[in-house]
Amino acid sequence: MFTKWFNASLFGFLFLLFLDFILFVGLKLNYFDAYGIHEYFNTLFADNQPWWLLLLSPLLGYAMLYLRHWKLFDKLYLILFLFTATTFYPPVGKRVGELLFMKQNQTVQLYGKTTKVDILYSARDGIYLKKPGSAVTVKVGYGDVRLKM
Hints:
single chain, alpha+beta, 2 domains, 5-stranded antiparallel sheet, 54% helix, elongated
């Protein structure tokens, strides 16, 4: 019984990780690169993994490996794959990235001056931001910016 659940967990984890990988490749191409956010893909991918992926993976793996109606779950997986692959289409990838990472019209204190910015991404060592309407992305350290409430 333990072996069955271990196999299901590993199988489900790998299949969900693949979906997440496809999603992040599309986001890297159409959101991060479009806004000039220069972070390594590995860092982006590792820092943004949802914790519930570990909880969902045994269930998906068990359903795909051991349930009688496994073809239903295969079709569901295919639909999820097609959904995540839509991020390769530039307008969709950019919009999904904006929904996941962008915080628009935030008031911050930047180098002692209060200004409105769009926060594009919070990285490990700094924040990528730009002024609304501007095409220039700037990375500042966490010590140089303070979010105003």
